[in-house]
Structures are given as C-alpha cells and as structure tokens.
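Supplementary Data S3. Sequence and structure tokens for construct A.
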Amino acid sequence: MITLIKGGSVVNPHAGTVEKRDLLIEKGKVSRILPKGALGETPSISTTLDASGKMIIPGLVDVHTHLREPGFEHKETIASGAMAAAAGGYCVIACMPNTAPPNDCRSVTEFILDQGKRADKARVYPIAAISKGQKGESLVDFCELASAGAVGVSDDGFPVLNSELMRRALEYAHYCGLTVISHCEDQNLSRGGVMHEGEISTRIGLPGIPGASEDIFVYREISLARLTRCPVHIAHVSTGASVELIRRAKDEGLPVTGETAPHYFTLDHGVLVGYNTRFKVNPPLRTSDDVDQIKKGLSDGVIDMIATDHAPHDSLEKEVEFDKAAFGMIGLQTALPLTLDLVREGIMTLPEAIKKLSSNGAALLGVPGGEIKEGGNADLAIIDTEYEYCFEESDIFSKSMNSPFLGRMLKGRCDLTMVGGKIVYQRDT
C-alpha cells in the first residue's frame, strides 16, 4: 500500500526551510521526498492526498500532557486525550504522573503504554514520578521505570521541596537515561494563592501567587545542574525572571532547558477581572511584561519548546467559586494556531515554531519524531495555516471543555494527522 501526498510545502525545522515537495509513504515510512510534480509514473499508489496550499509538518510532540488515567477517567482517558492530540496535529504526547495511583511503579507505566497502544492515535509515552506517591520523601526506582518504558520523571503538580532529594534525582535519572522535568514552585510563597500576585489580584480581591515562587526554584534547579552537571528541564515557564535565569544558565553552558505553554504568551492576568475560572491555571497567568519576556525567550532560543500542559477538568471542578475551582486548562487543539500567531507577529519563522512544537521535544525525551526524512517514520500533519474559525465546544475531542479560548477566533488548523503511515485524524470538510 502506497500513499502519495502531493502539492504541499514540507517544513524542515532542522534546515529552516519550507519547500514544495511530494511524499511517498510505504509501510509506515517516508520512502521518497521529491520536488513537486517530479514523481512520474509510479505503480500501485492506493491513496492520494492533495495538500495543495497547505503545509506538511513533522508530527507535533508534546512533552507535557495530563491524561488523567488511571483514576480520573471522568476528566480524560488515554484514548480521548490521544484523539484530541491527533486532532491538534500531535503524533507524540508524554503524560504526567499525577494520576490515581500516581505513575511511580512499573505496573502503572505499563498500563499507560498498553492503553496508548489500544487507543492507536497519537503515540503515548509515560513520564514517571520522581518520588514515591509524589510526596517528595523518597525516590522511585528510576531504572526500573525506564526499563518499563518511561521516558522521563517529574513530580509535576508538586514541587520537590527537598533540595538534596532533587540533587539525587538529577544524578540517578541521568545514570538511567531519563529526563528530569521540574515543577518550579515555592509553596511557602504560593500556598493559598489563586492567581498572579499584583495590581489585578489586589483590585479584584483574590489571593495572589508571586512570580518569585517560580523564580526561586528555577534558580535552585540551575544551581543543582551546575553542581551535578546533570540536565534539568524547567516546566511551564511563566515569568520574565525565569526566562532571564535560564538565559544566564545557557550562557554558562549548563545543561538546562525550558518550556512554556501557549497561554503564557497569549494571555495575561488582566483576563481574570471577570473571575472566569477557565483562566485559572498554575503557574498563573502573569503580567503583560512577563508575556513579552516569554515571547523574547522563544524568539532568541532561550525557551526551547512549547508544551501544552493540557489539564482537563470536568464542569463540577470549574463552574464553582474562583477560589475553589481547579487549576488547569486544556490545550492540545489550540497550541498550533496560537503558536502560528507568533509566526505572524515575526517572533519566529514557521520552521522555528515547528522546531519548538516538535523536534526539540523529541530530542528532550529521546523518542523518534520531529522530522520528515526518507526512511523515517511517517509521523506528520497537514495543516492549513490560513484557515480561520471560531473555536467552539463542538470542535473539542477531549472529554473536558475547560478551554479559555472557547469563542475565540483562531487562524490555522490541522487537517490531517498521520502516525506510522496511518491516518489517525482527518478533518471533516
């Protein structure tokens, strides 16, 4: 069975190019990449996909997704999350361990992998916990979890408060070939807060979370990377000060990487004036100056990747008083169009944006993906960068509807996602 994708422009994030090419897909691989119209006679083409006027990109890679299963299947299942990912152009998602029970042992890791294979949509890779029960008291068996199929470790949702434990985590994970993803939050400063601490929180009477609660732990992780010479990845960067700390660490040659999420370069704390709980997230939405610094960090390469921090919640957890509402928002289907807005602003080129959405994440996790090349897996998406639409609940494949972008006009959409040569999502026309 041979599939021909013709007429599209292939985005190469490594070379920084966008070129009109035709692709032949055979046995789950990209068998040939040819100049447009140069194919000639090829027998046995069973399917032809017309990508004229559209971009063909490497399948997106999300290093930070919450799939909720096991334990919170009413919010999301691995199957529904993998479907939402495919609809957003993602071929790879790495899911965080804050489930019930948490992913701190081989059986949970293997369960997640099995459920991901059964879903047969985006590829699902587990991120295991750093500490047993995510309690921050003792380390899990990293090498056992790595052998079970985990690609990284994190106590995301909970900071590792004990610096000695975090030091040992960096060293042990490096030995086992796992990525450490740090949730940076000083809970002594953030406890009780529900939004960014500043002028808006004072005006509307909500307890705040200062930016320093993030910055302090970013500084600690950088210090531990300097001490151990072991890599650390900073999750969901939200403050300008954190961006500057990571910039200095990179200038020093330290093995530090960082991610942000689309809501941190699209929204600021001013949107909370209406007490809309869909905007409640941790870390919280910061100031317009922080937004500008996040954009600068993306532009100059300080922030390595864009993750979604897709965090589904049901309506009972969101449609309550603001201080009681759950933190988090979904994002797998809006990350691509929101990032394309940065391309239109001139913050990044399209290849640079796709590199942050795809290639860099694959490299961080050490998984296949992030490029379209002859002989490589046919993991790709066809996107229409000019398609404009109003994002509505009917568009959502997640089990949860807690998106702050409902009702917003978006530009850019995934038309088709292919994983291993199989079409796992195709938009209805």
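Construct B, processed identically:
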Amino acid sequence: MHTTQMKISIPTDENGLVGRQCPTCLEYFSVKFGTGLSTSDHICPYCGYKASSNDFFTQEQNDYIVSLLSKEFIEPAIHDLNKSFKNLERSSSKFIKIKVKTNDVSFPIKSYQEKILETHVTCDNCGLVFSIYGVFSNCPDCGKLNSLIILKRSLESCEKRIKLSETPEASEISEDLISDALEQSVSSFDAFGKSLMKKYPTIFPSRSRNLFQNILLLEATLKDKFHKNIADFVGLEKSQHIKEMFQVRHIQTHNAGVIDDDFIKKVPEYSGKYGRKYKLKKEKVSETIENIGLLAQEVLDLLENYRA
C-alpha cells in the first residue's frame, strides 16, 4: 500500500496568529504557535475544554485544507482518468466506435482571513501569545486566568492619566483626569474581581455582584473564607489607604465628591469635614493604583494555591 504525505501550512494573520475554534462551545480564538508551552493540546479559553490542537481547526481552515488536497490529488487523478478515456476512444476499431465525452475539472484553492479579535494577550505564566473575544479568559496552553495581565494594562492607563494631568495642556481638565484615574482603577479592580468570582464560584457569594468595589465587604468575605484581612495582604498602612480611597471613589461617583455620613462612618478621621468636598490629590491616586495592583496579585496568588 502506497502512502503519500503532504505538509500543509495554515496561514496566519498579520501578527502571526492562527485561528482556533472550540469543538464544544464553538467560540473562536487565536494562538501564535512557537510561543507558550511545548504541547500538542489546547484549552478553550472560554469554556475550559481540553483536547488535541487538531480538534480546534476552524471550518474555514478545514475547507482550505480540503481544497489543497483536492487540487493536489483529486484534480490530477480526474485528469489522468479523462486521458485514459481519450486513449480508449483512439484505440477503437472501424467495427466498434467509442465516443468519450469528458469535462475538465478544476478545484480552486479556497482562501480565508482570520477574524479580528478584541484582546491580544501574552500569558505571563507560559509565554503563549493569543487573542480572544472579550477581555478575561484562560490561557489556551497553561489554563491560567489572564485577569491580572488585563488589570495591569488598565492600571498603566490610569497612571498615564495622572501623568497627563501634570502637563500644561491639560491644566483645565487636570482634576477630571485625576478623578477619572481613580474611577478607572477601582472599576478595573472590580472587573478583575468578577473574573475571579466566575472562576471560583464556591469562594465568593453570588449575590455580591459588585463585591470588589465594596472593599469592606470584600475584606469580610476573605476573612470568612481565609481568615485574612486586607492588611494581611498588603500591610496595615496600604490597607488603610485602599479603604479610604475606595470610599473616596464612592463619593466621587455618587455624591459629587462631598463627604457624607456613610463616608465618615467608614473613614472616621474625616468626622470634622462633613459636607465638605474631598480634595483629591494625584499622589494619593497614584498610590492607590500601585496598591490595587499589589492587592490583586496577592489575592490571585491565594486563590490559585487554594485547596478546599
């Protein structure tokens, strides 16, 4: 039995990534081969299904492969068969006439273009370069959640707002930029937390939708589950700073930055400033951004090493 082999290269996008489609949830993502782990398996970044990378071909890739095989093997075979029929026609005698009508068959190679995805990520655990729809997902190689990578990107953007607020060109909107940096840093931490809540549903209460915005409720949850306060993760001084600035963010968003009863209840040292507007300083917001990154890293490390 004769076996013929043909090496087929799957085209990449402009960034060198190859499209993949999960056979279970049918969601699309892309990976850059040659980065990440030395493995022949994929883990769906959306649903977690794990199988051979050969199971993750997209329909467009399958059509492309079939068209290449048809061009390489079926088209020449049909051409040879037509040629044989023509030879049979030429060899007929005057007593037996054979007429053969054949049609040339052509198999065009099907081209396709990989889809454009929203988030481009390099896994900080295994080094795989991949792209996904949405923002948060698991790495297709090592399975690690990419939430910290995305949070760090967002916090870097917050720091850029702080830097921009210092320029003469932004003098008229300097306060807005500082306030936006605080709002975005807390919102990013909340989004980071939602991805953890989705991955670890047995740890976090499902009813607490904005748990990672409410720093005191988050601390109570961590204390109940792990017997740890925020100070156990980042130290007492940073813990107090985080708690204050999360409350500042709350009054910035819901009370025009004016100190109210709820703020004083949670940050008692401001009891003499009721009804006054909190003066937001860029140094404190910049410190908040740094502390959020530290807290996020510590919480993620705790969860990844957690054994129920």
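The mean pLDDT is 90. The beta strands are 18-21, 28-31, 41-43, 50-52, 119-122, 129-132.
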